[in-house]
Amino acid sequence: MRWFALAASVCMLASCARMPPRPHDKIRFAHGPHLAAGVRCLQCHNIWQPGSKDGLAPAFKPSGDAGVPSLATAESALPPTAAAADGGVVSAQAAQAAAAQPTPSTEAQEAAQGEEATRIFPKEQKCKQCHTQPAERECRFCHTHPEAAASYSERDRPVRFNHGNHFGRGVRGCVGCHGLGSDANDRSAAAFSPRLPPMQPCTKSCHAADMPALACSRCHIDLHRYKRSQVELVRHPPGFLHEHGTRARAQSSLCSQCHEPSFCSECHTASPGLPAVLLHPTEVSRDFIHGADFKARHPSEARLEQATCLRCHGVSFCDGCHRDTGIGGGVGAQSPHPPGWLDPLSPRGHARAARSNILTCAACHDSDASHTCVPCHRVGSIAGNPHPPGFGAGSDKTRQGVCRVCHGDAR
Amino acid sequence: MQERPQPARAEASCAGMRCARRRFALAGFVLCALLPLTAAAQQAELQPERVVIRHDTILRYVPRYELTLETSAASSSTLFWRRVDQVPVYERISLDASGLGNRAVEVHVSAWGAADATMPAQSQGQLLSGDFATAYAKAGWRSLSAWGGRRFVTWGLPGGLHLDGVGVEERAKSGLYFEAVAGRPVTSVSTVLGSHSEYTQPTVAYGARVGYDRPGTLAAAGSYIERWSNGLAANRALMGTVAYRPYERLDLLASSTFDVRSGVQEARVQAAYLATDEIEPELAYVHADPRKLLPSWSILSMFATDVYDEGVLGVTGHVSHDWSARVELGMRRSYLPGAPKEGAHLGYRTDASVRFRPTGQRTEVVCEISRRDEGETALFITRLAAAFVPYYPLRIAPELGAAVDEHDSKRTALLARLSAELPLGPRWTSALSADLARTPIALLEVRSLLRVSYLLDGGSH
To answer: Which of A46, A156, B272, B420 has its CA at a distance of 20 to 30 angstroms from the CA of residue A98?
Structure first.
C-alpha cells in the first residue's frame, strides 16, 4: 500500500515536471535605438516628483545628506550618440516625437496632473507619446505574448535598490553602473543595452559587512531564483556545521534565502531511512558532521560525548536501530539486550529471562549480582523491595549466598 | 544462529500491519491534499515560478552485522558477529515548487522507498520500507501564511521536531513574526532498510513562537512548546535565541532551552569578532544536561547522566577566498549532579581543519584533525577528502580517514574511499563509490554504491 502511495507521488511529481511552460510575457524593448534617437534615460525613468523640495520622487530620495545630482550628472558618461539605428525599433516619427519630448521639469508638471511619477518604469502611455503609428500601437509591437499581456512587475526585480540613496556617493550617473551592456566593445548608443551592475563594487565597499552576516535580503528579494552555484560567493566558514543548528533556530529566514526545505530534509528526516551520505558521493562534506566512517566508531563516540548525541538525536534514534539488530535497545547503546528488557511487564523483560535461565545472564555478568542486580533490586531503589510478601520470616540471611549479596555485612 | 522468539515476531508482524495501515492513511491524506493542487497546477495560473525536482536511484552493497554465538565468526573483538550482506535499492524523490497560485502557494515533498530482495531470510520479512521525509503545502496571503502536512520545525526543542500537523505564520514587514504549530510528532521505527514513521503511540505537540528578525542585525525569538506522549507531558520547553550584531565586526549568538519542570536543558553563548578581514576569533560557552533532554517516558531518563560545561576558543582564518582554516580548542568539565565534587572530570578537544576551494572550479580539498580526551576515553580522528575534475566532466573524490581509540586499539577504524561522478545527460548524473574499511567489528569491510540521479531545476523564471 505504501508503495502505491509512493508510486502515486512519483506520478504526481512527474506530472509537475511535464507541465507545459506558461507563456511569460515580456516587454520588447531595446535601449540602444532609443538612446540613438535622442531619448534620455530620465525621460522614461521618471524620478521627478512635483512639489517636493528637491524635485526627486520618494523612491529616489537620498536618505543621507548626499547631494542631489543634476540631470547632467545623472546621465553623464552616456555612450556617444550615433546616428539613428536603421534597423532599430524606433521609427523616424518616433525619433522626432522623442526629440520634442518635454524636459524632466515638464514631466514633473505632468506628474502633478495625476500621473504616477514614483515608478521607475514608464507606463504604456509614455511609449504611446512617441509611438504614434498604427503599427506601433498594436499589442504585439511591444508584448512578446499579447494573449497573456502583463506589465512589468516590481516583483520581477531581482534586487531592492534605492537610487536616491546612491546618488552623490561616487556613482557616475546612470551609465556609471548600468554601462557596458550586452556589447561592451561597441561604444555606439545604438548598441547600448544596460546591464545590472555586479555585486562586487557593493560588497567591497559599503556592504562589506553584509556578506559575512549573510544579510542577503537587504538587497536581494529572492535568492531562490539563482542556482546554488551562482550564489557560492557566500561560503560558510569551516566549523559552521557544528553551530548551524543554533543559527538556524535564531535566523531561519536567513537560511531559507538560499536553501529549500528539502535541503534540510536530506539530513533532518523524521525517519532516517536514506542516509544523506548516499546522495552526494563526490562531495567532500558528504558525511555531514559525522566524518571518517562515524558509524564504525559510534560506540566510542557515544561513550565519549553522550550529551552531544542527544542534543540532535532523540532517544528513539539509538533505540530504533539497536532494537532491530538485537544489539542493545532500551537500555543503552552498549547493551546487547532486546527492547523491553527493563520493562517488568514485557514478554522480553529481563525478569522472565532471568527466571527461565539465569545462566544466560551469568555468561556475561559473571555472577556479579552485586553490581548488576542489587543496585536496582534493593529496598528503596528503583525496582523496589525484591522480597515478596511474607518472605524472609525465619530465614538466616547469613547462610544463603544470594542473601549475602545484599546482607553480607549482617554477620 | 540465535532464533528470535516466535511471539515477538508475531507481535512485530501485527504491529507492522497496523503501522503500514496508518502510514498508508497518512500517505493518502497527503496525496488527497496534493493531488487537487497538482491538478490545479496544470492550469496556467498555477504554473510554478520555480520548481526543483530531484530523483535518485541508489543500489548499495553494505554488510550488516548481528551478534551471534558462533565462535568461528571472524571478529576483532571479544564479541562474535555474523555478517549479513545486503544489496538494497533506494529511491528518493524530492520536489520544491514555489510561486504557485499567483505566487502564493509553495509545495515541498520529499519521500524515499527501499527494497531488498537479496537476503529475505536475514531481512526477517522486512523487504520493503519507505516514508515521507517532508510533505507539506504552504499558502500565503500578504504577510500571513499557513501550512499543512509533514514539516521539520527547527525551533521549540533541541534537535527540532518533525510534525504531522498544521501551522500559521505572520511576518510583518517590520521584522516581527509569530508562528504557531500543532500536530502529531513523528515517531519512527527501525527496519533493516532504514527507519520509517509509525503511529503506535498516542502523542501530540503544540507550541508558538514570537520573534523579531532583521537579517544581519538582530534576530531574537522566544518559543514555548509542549509534547505529550502516553498521557505524560514529555516536554514543556521554553527556548530563547538571539543573534545580534551590535556593529559590523562583532557577532553575538545565544540560545537556551529551559524545561519548565526540570530547568536548563542546554545553553550556548558565543561571540565572534572579525578582527580583520582574514582573522575571526571566537569564544563560546556550552552547557548540556542530557538527562533533561530525554522525554520522561523514556526509561533512560531514570538513569543519572553526566552534565557538562564547555568553554571553546576558536579562530577562523580566511586566508583568501579559496583558502580557509579553523582551529578550535574546547575545555570540558563533566560531572554528575549530586555526586561529590571529586567525581567531576576534565576533558578537552582540539579540532583543526583546512579547506581549499577555488572559485569557479569543482575542486575542493578538506583536511580535518581532531583529538578528544575525556580522561577515560580518547579519540584521535583525521580525515583528508578531495574532489577534482581530472577529465571533464568526470569528477573524482578520494577520501582517507582514521579514528584511533587511544585506550582500546581494537576499536580503531580506518577508511579508504573512492567516488566518481559522471553526467549522463543534461539532467542526469551517475555516481559510483567504493569503500574499504577496517572497523571495530570487521578487519576488512567492502561497501559500494551506484547512484543515478535526475535533477530538474526550472520554472517560469
So the answer is: A156
| From A160-169, B65-74, B265-274, B367-376, the region with the lowest mean pLDDT | B65-74
Give the residue from A180, A138, A165, A133 showing the smallest Cα distance to A66.
A165
Interchain pair A254, B215: CB under 8 A? yes
Reading the block at residue B26, the C-alpha cell is: 497518512
Interchain CB distance below 8 Å, B108 and A262:
yes
Identify the residue among B69, B188, B264, B443 best suited for mutation to test binding to A, counting A beta carbons within 10 A and taking the highest.
B188
* Residues contacting A273, CB < 8 A, separation 6+: B90, B112, B114, B129, B130, B131, B133, B193, B194, B195, B196
User: Could you give the maximum distance between any two Cα atoms of chain A, in Å?
Assistant: 124
Question: What kind and span of H or E run contains B214?
Answer: strand B203-214
Confidence at residue A330, expressed as pLDDT on a 0 to 100 scale: 42
Answer whether A248 touches B (CB < 8 Å).
yes
A 149-188 residues with CB below 8 A of B? Answer: 155
Contact A325 B65 (CB under 8 A): yes
Q: Where are the beta strands (DSSP E) in B291-444?
A: 307-317, 323-335, 345-356, 364-373, 378-391, 394-405, 413-423, 428-438
CA B230 to chain CA mean position, Å:
26
- Each domain of chain A, given as residue ranges in start order, spans 31-194, 208-265, 312-410
Is residue A326 scored above 80 in pLDDT? no
The answer to whether B297 and B230 have CB atoms below 8 angstroms apart is: yes
Contacts of A346 in chain B (CB under 8 A): none
C-alpha cell at A334: 552498549
